[in-house]
Amino acid sequence: MAALRVLELYSGIGGMHQALKESCPSAEVVAAVDVNTLANEVYKHNFPSTPLWAKTIERQACSRGLLDKTRMLNTLQTGEIGLQGDVSDPRTKSFLYILDILPRLQKLPKYLLLENVKGFECSSARNELLRTLETCGFKYQEFLLSPTCLGIPNSRLRYFLIAKLHQEPFPFQAPGQILPRFPDQDLEDLFENKAAGKDSSSLSYEEKNLDPNIGPDCSSKKSLPKGTFLFKLETVEEMERKHTQDNDSSIQMLKDFLEEENEEMSQYFLPPKSLLRYAFLLDIVKPTCRRSTCFTKGYGHYVEGTGSVLQTAVDVQLESVFKCIEELPEEEKLMKLSTLKLRYFTPREIANLHGFPLEFGFPDKVTIKQCYRLLGNSLNVHVVAKLISVLLG
Ligand code: SAH
Predict the structure, then answer these.
(1) Could you tell me the strand order of the sheet in which 342-344 lies?
(2) Domain CATH code at residue 325
(3) Share of the chain above pLDDT 90, in %
(4) Is there a smaller number of Cβ atoms within 10 Å at the N or the C end of the chain?
(5) Cα–chain-centroid distance for residue 79?
(6) Rounded to an integer, what distance in angstroms lies between the CA atom of residue 384 and that of residue 374?
(7) Separation of CA 196 and ligand 1 centre (Å)
(8) What are phi and psi of 173, to 5 degrees?
(9) Residue 55 C-alpha to ligand 1 middle, in angstroms?
(10) Does ligand 1 have an atom closer than 6 angstroms to the CB of 114?
(11) 158 and 248 share a domain?
């Protein structure tokens, strides 16, 4: 088979390129397109020999003579096309533009892979995408996948679509369905459950070796009504879910993804103001935990809901810190909270969780906040690598 020629649209820092390198080393990214100057700097730093078109996709298409349907045909040739669209206005516009020209290309790409945020599956852009794919004769399958399905302790639920032109349907194709797992996993599970005579989601806590009435701190929660807040504005249900995740040995521990603590780490510790203001809203994890929440582009800047923070004083009990803390004067409150030694994950650690290899780096001039922003927009490399393998069969 001739080497794949790939066009990487909305390339960002090159998560798709990295995934392609992992799953299909012989493939060549013939061009990457992105309008973000900083993302492009990082892309060039890591993939210096890939032609990078630093313009909007719409303008790029025009200046490259797309309207007379010549140049872009060459680039799309037998290649694959990596896209990331978004339902927010400007990107949807460029995305709809791509959908508009796709059927008019003389030579369609053989494969397509698209990543987007969860929620895209409910957008009109997605309906338009499916219509276009059907018109062009693509066979496709949609997914909603998180890195946890590969044993990575990070939630990052994303929409994916893979498509191939003029071929047999995928063996796992499920029309009208969005698959929540990789196809081979489905098969493995099917066999396992057949043997066990049940569906794994019906396993009770006891069968999973967890007692629902015993909290992670070994306290009894029997009498608490549903939805009751425990310490730290967390409900029993939330706490149970976290406890279950932390005991799921199919997921790696966070410590496998962490850098060694050193003096440089001091810059990542949460400032007193954030501690006092947001302590109750933080998602706090220890190195031995097997979960972390999705790191977004506001991480390190906005505190609430942007990603987990790490408790580096591992022997301190969360509950003992948070109990009755509300009534304390600020100074004492801060003292108590400080004993946890909470810090942000470093950009390198987030890159590790995203599956970027150690040789992937950021140019020196990119600030930490900028790294968080770029990584927050990026994707999990291993998830995409596996999808590419599934796509290419
Ligand atoms: N997969 C990428 C991230 C994609 S985020 C990664 O691994 O980093 C979406 C990217 O699309 C952003 O970098 C943004 O700059 C770019 N973008 C959005 N609208 C665009 C347009 N009209 N033309 C070109 N690039 C665009």
Answers:
(1) 284-285, 309-311, 342-344
(2) 3.90.120.10
(3) 67
(4) N
(5) 25
(6) 17
(7) 45
(8) -55, 130
(9) 10
(10) no
(11) no
With 50 as the cut, is the pLDDT of residue 28 above it?
Answer: yes
Chain segment 227-256, per-residue pLDDT in tens: 665 667 678 888 899 999 999 999 999 999
Residue 391 has pLDDT above 60, yes or no: yes
Please check the confidence at residue 12 and state whether its pLDDT lies above 50.
yes
Domain-embedded: residue 370:
yes
As a whole number of Å, the end-to-end CA separation of the chain is 13
Stated pTM of the model: 0.86
Residue 217's pLDDT is what? Answer: 37
How much is the pLDDT for 234?
77
Provide the pLDDT for residue 304: 81
Kindly state if the Cβ of 92 falls inside 6 Å of ligand 1.
Answer: no
Q: Where are the alpha helices (H) located in 230-297, listed in sequence order? A: 236-246, 272-278
Same domain, yes or no, for 153 and 260?
no
pLDDT (average), residues 187-198: 48
**CA geometry: angle 46, 51, 54, nearest 5 deg:** 90
Q: In angstroms, what is the span from residue 350 Cα to ligand 1's centroid?
A: 19
The verdict on 388 and 371 lying in the same domain is: no
In what helix (H) or strand (E) does residue 7 lie, and over which residues does it extend? strand 5-9
Tally Cβ neighbours within 10 Å of residue 155: 16
Do both 116 and 262 map to the same domain?
A: no
Which residue has a Cα nearest atom 4 of ligand 1?
12
Cβ atoms of 159 and 143 closer than 8 Å: yes
Whole-angstrom Cα distance, residue 200 to residue 205? 12
Task: Decide which of 220 and 247 is more confident.
Answer: 247
Cβ–ligand 1 distance for 32 under 6 Å, the answer no
Please tell me the total count of domains within the chain: 2
DSSP H stretches of helix in the chain:
15-23, 37-46, 57-63, 71-76, 89-101, 124-136, 183-196, 236-246, 272-278, 318-322, 330-338, 347-353, 368-377, 381-392
Q: Do 151 and 242 fall within a single domain?
A: no
Is residue 121 situated within a structural domain?
Answer: yes
Q: Distance from the CA of 92 to the center of ligand 1, in angstroms?
A: 11
